[in-house]
Design brief:
about 150 residues; alpha+beta; HIT family, subunit A; globular; HIT-like_sf; HIT-like
Length: about 150
């Protein structure tokens, strides 16, 4: 059996690369993307590295789906937007993931308009993580506060 090369998401989850986590449990993790459509853009990722969301087992998919609603509501509340965008694309990283982002209009669903990693403001990124975590009641590692 061939071992799979760890994806960038696996490396973030394992602490090999930095990440701004907003949620984490035994099944998945949610952290800010480094190239956001808007500040507050989160990736919800299963811990298990599975390339396509359609290949996830149904229990994992149901967990991600349920959490996407909870995290989506936290994002919407934190940014006072009418909606939270939800996109599954899956071409850039071979690890299933859901994009969740604050949005006010359909034209914001355009990855060509994403901020480049070096164009984001680190303070604004940190602030985004804090704002979302406050609504999820999670700590800086994404775990629930007791």
């Amino acid at each position: 059996m061939t071992e799979i090369e760890p994806s960038v998401f696996t490396r973030i989850i394992n602490g090999e690369l930095p990440g701004r986590f907003v949620y984490r449990d035994d099944v998945c993790a949610a952290f800010l993307t480094i190239e956001p459509l808007r500040y507050g853009h989160v990736l919800l990722v299963p811990i298990e590295q599975v390339d396509k969301w359609t290949d996830l087992d149904s229990e994992t998919w149901l967990h991600l789906s349920s959490l996407s609603q909870e995290i989506g509501e936290a994002i919407k509340t934190a940014y006072d937007t009418p909606r939270t965008g939800f996109i599954i694309a899956g071409f850039d990283v071979p690890h299933a993931h859901i994009h969740l982002f604050p949005t006010e209009k359909m034209s914001e669903y355009d990855f060509a308009k994403a901020m480049a990693m070096d164009a984001t403001d680190p303070k604004a990124m940190d602030e985004a993580a804090v704002r979302i975590r406050q609504h999820l009641n999670t700590d800086e590692n994404g775990y629930r506060n007791n």
